Amino acid sequence: MISEEVMQLVDKGEMLPLMEEFYTIQGEGYHKGTAAYFIRIGGCDVGCHWCDVKESWNAGTHPPTDIESIAINAAKYSDTIVVTGGEPLTWDMGPLTNSLKAKNLQTHIETSGAYPLSGDWDWICLSPKKNKLPVPEIYPQADELKVIVYNKHDFVFAEEQVAKVGPNCILYLQPEWSVRDKMVPLIVDFVMQNPKWKVSLQTHKYLNIP
After folding, report:
1. In which element (H, E) is residue 20 found?
2. Which of 18, 78, 147, 209 can pair with 37 through a Cys bridge, CB separation 3.0 to 4.6 Å?
3. Candidate CATH numbers 3.20.20.70, 3.20.20.370, 3.10.580.10, 3.30.420.40; the one for domain 4-206
4. Is the pLDDT of residue 186 over 80?
5. Over 90: is that where the pLDDT of 1 sits?
6. Looking at residue 206, what is its pLDDT?
7. Percentages helix, strand, coil for the chain, rounded to the nearest 5?
8. Strands 35-41 and 64-66
């Protein structure tokens, strides 16, 4: 049973439901191939049926953890810190990024954008989902738009989303892992016809690394 005092600290972002933290290679998007320390925060109500970390959804199963201890651990491994989930913007990210920035660390976030942006970020990867769209104000702040392609309609969705981001946002289409053999040829054809897009693959899975 989590105490009321702890819950108040979680509400303030001074503690966060930490699912896992690990040092690995960024496998996706613009920074793929870069060594990075990942902080996975529990809690998500976006509910993508193909999500490969459904165990992150229930924040109550992940222990509230002091953000300073998270930042101290992160600083031992890498200058680049990736905060992901779950949906990290469920929580106030300000205190965590303040702690990371105080240690001169680069802060990256991977988010659906379903909740207002909080925190101080060097890189924002926006990966919008149909069933819970991003809040409007996050689009112009995205450095990278990553649309997961599960079926043909996702190409239509991708074009709807690109109309909302800024002119310097880098655009990626990434096949959902379970249908990659089917969707990769369609993505390649689409990118060749629409070269503003790039192909993103989950290279860490091909390399068999976490």
Report:
1. strand 15-25
2. 78
3. 3.20.20.70
4. yes
5. no
6. 61
7. 35, 25, 40
8. unpaired
pLDDT digits (tens, 9 = 90+) for 126-181: 999 999 999 999 999 999 999 999 999 999 999 999 999 999 999 999 999 889 89
Q: Is 8 annotated as a binding residue?
A: no
| Short-list 77, 140, 128, CA closest to 106 | 77
Which residues, 6 or more positions from 167, have their beta carbon under 8 angstroms from its beta carbon?
none
Q: Report the chain's mean pLDDT, rounded to a whole number.
A: 94
pLDDT band at 48 (very low <50, low <70, confident <90, very high): confident
Contacts of 206 (CB under 8 A, 6+ apart): none
Residue 153 has phi, psi (to 5 degrees) of: -65, -20
State how beta strands 15-25 and 35-41 pair.
Answer: antiparallel
Residue 169 counted as an annotated binding residue: no
What average pLDDT score do residues 8-19 get? Answer: 95
Place of tokens 């909080």: 118
Q: Answer yes or no: is 12 a known binding residue.
A: no
Q: Find out whether 33 is annotated in a ligand binding site.
A: no
Please name the residue that has the structure tokens 């989950």.
Answer: 202
The answer to whether 26 is annotated as binding is yes
pTM of the model: 0.94
Question: In the chain, what are the domain boundaries?
Answer: 4-206
210 labelled ligand-binding: yes
